[in-house]
Automatic annotation (TrEMBL):
<keyword id="KW-0378">Hydrolase</keyword>
<dbReference type="GO" id="GO:0016020">
    <property type="term" value="C:membrane"/>
</dbReference>
<dbReference type="GO" id="GO:0016787">
    <property type="term" value="F:hydrolase activity"/>
</dbReference>
<dbReference type="Pfam" id="PF00561">
    <property type="entry name" value="Abhydrolase_1"/>
</dbReference>
<dbReference type="InterPro" id="IPR050266">
    <property type="entry name" value="AB_hydrolase_sf"/>
</dbReference>
<dbReference type="InterPro" id="IPR000073">
    <property type="entry name" value="AB_hydrolase_1"/>
</dbReference>
<feature type="domain" description="AB hydrolase-1">
    <location>
        <begin position="23"/>
        <end position="249"/>
    </location>
</feature>
<dbReference type="InterPro" id="IPR029058">
    <property type="entry name" value="AB_hydrolase_fold"/>
</dbReference>
<protein>
    <submittedName>
        <fullName>Alpha/beta hydrolase</fullName>
    </submittedName>
</protein>
<dbReference type="InterPro" id="IPR000639">
    <property type="entry name" value="Epox_hydrolase-like"/>
</dbReference>
Amino acid sequence: MRTHEVQNATLHYDDHGPVDGLPVLLAHGHPFNRTLWAPQVRELAAHGYRVLTPDLRGYGDSRLPAGTHATPLSVFADDLAALLDHLGLPGAIVGGVSMGGQIAMEFHRRHPQRVRGLVLSDTSAPAETEEGKAFRNALADRLLSEGMAGYADEVIDKMLAPYNVTGQPAVADAVLTMMRTTDPRGAAAALRGRAERPDYRESLPRVAAPTLVLVGADDVYTPVPVAEEIRDLIPGATLTVVDDAGHLPGAEQPSRFNAALLNFLRMVRA
């Protein structure tokens, strides 16, 4: 694990694979940390890619700066750009899952010239509804008052397909542990910031880089039609539906997810 100072925060990140490999920068979702990408890190690094997986500020080992009430997606995106600057990288394949996918879309909106490719997994493009804003802000208040454990138990069978919660206990335990150990302050700040996100349907048609959209076949948070909308908005984008998976197909079905990701990366590298 390495660290870098970004915008009054210390970002902890892993850097695996050859230094001269095609860089792939992956943003985790809420409320997880960089270890969510462990199956992808191993596979991509073994195939010669340089894989960068940061803990977003307020998650994992990256602490939330004191006094932070909300963390807009623009702050997360600029943190990623600052990390690339620190590493001397003009651009990268930028990807993310769920909130991380929205951060990747925000990264493109703010730094389009640095995007060599986009990987958008189980995410959504529209701005938050008024009902959604109220829900996210109420959840932020709840997490601050109650902590993460109750919330984690409530959503585990939505983060993973229910049959994978029982059928893959090691994966379920790892996901639960990530959620339960997330700093409630970081999670709450991200929820408040995410509630105010822009509508990425306005910027996605301007994506000029190759794009892969992935989604678990049984994702209840961002179902297949949501992924199809993103694919249809981005010129030349391709969609892979990962069978036997919910909202986190990279963890639930890593072999299938990685196969699609490697095929995409080979095309970009070529």
